[in-house]
Amino acid sequence: MQLRYSFRLYPDTGQLRALARAFGCARVVFNDAVRAREDARKDGRPFPTAGELSARLITEAKRTVERSWLGEVSAVVLQQSLRDAESAYRNFFASLKGTRKGPRIGPPCMKSRKDTRQSIRFTANARWNITGSGRLSLPKIGAVKVKWSRSLPATPTSVTVIKDATGRYFASFVIDTDPAADATRMPETDQTIGIDLGLTHFAVLSDGTKIESPRFLRRAEKKLKKTQRELSRKQKGSKNREKARLKVARAHAKVTDARREFHHQLSTKLISENQGIAVEDLSVTALARTRLAKSVHDAGWASFLSMLEYKAIRYGRTLVRIGRFEPTSQTCSTCGVKDGPKPLNVREWTCTACGTVHDRDTNAAINVKTAAGLAVSACGAPVRPEPVLAQREETGSHGFPTGPRAA
Fold first, then answer.
1. What is the DSSP code string of 316-374?
2. Are 368 and 280 in contact (CB under 8 A)?
3. Do 255 and 216 contact (CB within 8 A), yes or no?
């Protein structure tokens, strides 16, 4: 499978100017491609092909006075920008036809030089390489200093240079992992676990373990309010406003990075200790429309489940998602009798049939495990047939800020 490994970059002054130039050229080519498509649509003409756009917007444009500066950056960067535009249109049309999963998306929009996140991509054709001193050598940019937090397990197929909202630079490498090597990284185990996700506790396991919710956003709210208030008082377009915007972005980035690190550590621990994991298929989008929206977003369940899913596939573990309408909180895990719905303030209850006193969350986690077919009976036989291996939908495409990091 393909994963992304992200590392922090520290470009010098000249490299910062070269990167800004590359970001700008890639943005212009992308906007020109979108404009050419829109003009063709308004005139009733067929959309220009990728080859026609490449010849007109890159090759011929470099010979003109208005676009001669496109030759100052790597041609691969411009070609990849065209591919991004083509991919955006393909996703848009697939969404219109209903063949693309997820919510419907709109047509590609023009990119702005004021966008807080910018990126460029280099493929193998660009002849980028990692030097002997550990720097990342990029064409027409130079050898950029990299903070290597770990070693790359294989030769990357491409690298994306990203500038995030806080002004940090990252190099995101696409790696084709070796299944045989991945299998040796995790210890053999026959344990299985059920997980009940919540807000009071981030996760409650079927063995009774309760993992507290870090609530990174709630703990940082006071500082976030202060920085946002300072930003609102600055004059628009001023340098002081830009400085205040960076403070807000850095405060949010700190929360995001801490949450991501927590998700990675917990998901890797669960995958390492268990061969089978069962979770509920939560509707995070619907829960985010309730009065608990801020707490739901703060927990980041969708990101955590995505990490569990790709790590289970990578390391040969089994991840099972049960239906969100399973009455896990209403059913006695001892005798199986459905005892009816209970308000959220009821954290313990006694089964009317067998008299067992249940902790609400632990009982739900046990029922999640049973519903997934991972529980075993007294004779050691599985309650239900073993589930098939979960399939991962995407490998991520935006590196450190949004896509999954490899564990």
1. T-EEEEE-TT--TTTB-TTT--B-----TT--EEE-TTT--EEEHHHHHHHHHHHHTT-
2. yes
3. yes
pLDDT on residue 204: 94
Query: What is the CA 235 to chain-centroid distance, rounded?
Result: 34
Q: Residues of 124-136 as b/e, b for ≥16 C-beta within 10 angstroms?
A: eebebebeeeebb
pLDDT tens digit string along 342-381? 888 888 888 888 888 888 889 999 999 998 887 543 334 3
Which residue, chain included where needed, has tokens 């002054």? 13
Alpha-carbon gap, residue 187 to 35, rounded angstroms: 54
Collapse the DSSP code of 232 into the 3-class scheme (helix H, G, I; strand E, B; otherwise coil) and give the result: helix
- Whole-Å CA distances, 54 to 81, 140, 346: 10, 20, 63
401 in helix, strand or coil? helix
Task: Please compute, for residue 100, the number of CA atoms within 13 A of its CA located in the half-sphere on the CB side.
Answer: 17
CA distance 209 to 191: 14
The parts of the chain modelled with pLDDT lower than 70 are 375-407
Distance between CA atoms of residues 161 and 168, nearest Å: 10
Q: Determine how β-strand 318-322 pairs with β-strand 276-280.
A: parallel
Q: Cite the active site residues.
A: 196, 280, 361
The whole-angstrom separation of Cα 48 and Cα 45 is 9
The two tokens of residue 154 are: 């294989």
> Rounded to an integer, what is the distance from CA 72 to the centroid of its chain?
33
pLDDT tens track for 102-114: 888 999 999 999 8
d(CA 280, CA 372): 9
- pTM attached to this predicted model: 0.84
pLDDT tens track for 149-186: 998 888 898 999 999 999 999 999 999 888 888 888 88
